[in-house]
Design brief:
- The protein has 407 residues and is an all-alpha fold.
- Helix content is 86%, strand content 0%.
- The longest helix has 50 residues, at 138-187.
Length: 407
């Protein structure tokens, strides 16, 4: 069922990518990439990086009704306040954000005003989806993703056809907020949501318990996209806006096939790691991933490499054919990334906050400084080479750190 969901999402992504290629071109694709990186950081701040912590504590307290109500009420009240504050900052400083993200040559302040209106709805929908996931309702999580992707497709088609680049940017900020209606429908089947939200249920200890997850998620989900934003600015300055669009293109392709792994990890393997009681049980989870998921992923990427010209022509246009030169290093880096992902999830499952932050900061530093060197030496290929190098170093670090649970 998860595979069906991912295939549908990829199919939707193919249509969206083709629309972007035809109506906005490589330079417009670069602007979309800038906004996507900004949104990733903003969305993590708006949810305080609580998602993995919510999944863990909901899974552990699913049968403890009183504690579950406290968790839901506390997180809901906290996230709503944060989202409202962020929305005000976005709305009243929309012109500033437009210049920061898109540069002085583009005036897309309306995008950030639309984002301000949709952000609270998005934050709450992410929270509700995490609760459903923690309750073990995997099929409902997948159905929410399927319906949400379908809504996103319809919004993207309408907006891109009507407003071209502006429409592409608006669709990115509008679609996530519409997920609220879908998640609310499904969570209400599990619990009476609004009756659960009571101010007296607020428990600061829960926020304290979740703070370690918040720190971990904010480091990776806020600093990570900001580093990518800085790298993209370097790419634009050194090799040009169009080349930056080619990097965004290969990143979009990577995002599609990576969905197979990331969704299975968050929906299935993270809860397994969270309840693993010792190194032996953790080792079984690690190796079940390496024996079942990783080999299939490698085979799939091998097929993608040999079909790269067909894929680029199918998804985009002839203007994007230079992207085919980026496939080898991108796919190599993604294999290394997937091999390290399952190990990285152990940080969240066992609340290894300090270790995670140190490893993440180290990885981001390696990525940023290696990208400066490789881009100057190899042009646009240098950025995917830098990503592959960073993923290799990160995998080695995690293998050493988790050696007792791995070997």
């Amino acid at each position: 069922m998860n595979s069906l969901s991912v295939i549908l999402k990829i199919g939707i992504g193919l249509v969206t990518s083709k629309l972007l290629a035809v109506f906005v071109g490589p330079s417009g694709m670069a602007l979309v990439g800038n906004l996507r990186n900004f949104l990733t950081s903003l969305e993590s701040i708006s949810t305080l990086g609580f998602q993995n912590g919510i999944i863990k504590y909901t899974a552990e307290n699913g049968k403890n009704e009183n504690q579950l109500k406290k968790i839901i009420a506390t997180v809901f009240i906290c996230l709503l306040c944060i989202a409202i504050i962020l929305s005000c900052v976005l709305y009243f400083f929309a012109t500033f954000w437009s210049k920061e993200i898109f540069g002085n040559n583009f005036d897309y302040a309306i995008v950030f005003k639309a984002l301000a209106l949709g952000l609270p709805w998005y934050a709450i929908s992410v929270f509700m989806l995490s609760v459903i996931n923690g309750l073990g309702q995997f099929k409902k999580v997948i159905w929410i993703n399927i319906i949400g992707n379908a809504i996103g497709l319809l919004v993207s088609i309408g907006m891109i056809l009507q407003y071209k680049t502006l429409g592409a940017l608006l669709s990115l900020v509008i679609s996530p907020g519409l997920m609220f209606c879908v998640t609310f429908y499904f969570i209400n089947k599990e619990i009476n949501f609004f009756k659960t939200i009571r101010l007296h249920q607020f428990d600061f200890q829960i926020i304290k318990n979740l703070s370690s997850y918040s720190l971990m998620a904010l480091v990776s989900s806020v600093l990570g996209p900001l580093v990518f934003l800085a790298i993209r600015k370097n790419v634009i300055e050194i090799v040009g806006l169009e080349e930056a669009g080619f990097w965004e293109t290969i990143t979009r392709i990577s995002t599609y096939y990576m969905l197979f792994v990331t969704t299975i990890l968050s929906v299935y393997f993270l809860p397994k790691l969270a309840v693993a009681k010792n190194n032996l049980e953790t080792k079984k989870v690690f190796w079940s991933f390496y024996k079942t998921i990783l080999p299939v992923f490698i085979i799939g990427l091998t097929v993608i490499y040999f079909l790269r010209f067909f894929i680029v022509n199918l998804l985009f246009t002839n203007l994007f054919l230079p992207v085919t030169t980026l496939f080898f290093w991108q796919l190599t880096g993604d294999v290394l990334k997937v091999a390290s992902l399952i190990l990285g999830y152990q940080f969240f499952a066992k609340k290894l906050t300090i270790a995670f932050i140190i490893s993440e900061l180290f990885s981001l530093a390696v990525l940023y400084f290696s990208s400066l060197y490789f881009i100057n030496e190899f042009g646009i290929q240098g950025i995917v080479m830098a990503q592959a190098f960073d993923n290799f170093i990160y995998l080695l670090v995690l293998c050493v750190y988790f050696r007792k649970s791995l070997f």
